[in-house]
Amino acid sequence: MPLFRKKKRLRKLEPAEERTVRTEGVFIKCEKCREVLYRKDVEENLRVCPKCGYHFKISARRRLELLFDDGRYQEHDAQLVTTDPLNFVDKKSYKQRLAEMQKATGLLDAVITGEGTLGGYRTIIAAMEYQFIGGSMGSVVGEKIARAIERAEQGRMALIIVSCSGGARMMEGVFSLMQMAKIAAALARLDDARLPYISVLTDPTTGGVTASFAMLGDLNIAEPGALIGFAGPRVIQQTIRQKLPEGFQRSEFLLRHGMLDAVVPRKELRPYLIRALGFMMDGRR
Question: What's the pLDDT at 1?
């Protein structure tokens, strides 16, 4: 007979939800190489895949923080909001769609315009937000960009527009299409004033945005692998009934065919822009 007995300890069962290891949002899959990546590593690499160099989309506000000196800038026209001129309804009303996007992004529309310095050069930068109805250009986007151009002209500043857009916003019809001509006319005045405009095209830049201000820069540069064009490749292939070349409408393809001046990785974009401004502003700060 044993002198001592081992006391059985009752194991306290934890609720199932407390024992579950939560990994949601910790990992992200690369859309190009399909590698599963640690999200923190991707964020620290400026949202570029460390395996294959694929450039994930980044928000307009993050874009401005990465470009302006110390990430500091003065935002302009943040209060502008569309009035839904056509009372448009498809699967849901335009008003409802706008409200949902405003809640999701914290923005009133699909572009942020800011003023600050880039490498010491006074600069206006407009960055488009793809999460807001595909970065589409409606009357507010057009007005904010036109005002940014006018501020650059009046203040003798450089202008940079970072495009990320599905094109003109169908919910505003002709009001959206009018922005193409309005912005192009404002850019012509900026050119007459001999002030630089640098266009940065990111994935994707399509439709009426490509057909207007995105391709009108004194310097047109793009991020690697960005889809750039008017109609999408699938629509073109179905229309002409021919197989498209490999890499068609990607930034590298456009560079080879003379439609871009440079393809610049995200890590190199800020120093590249500073060097460009040093040349184009002739040392004026």
Answer: 54
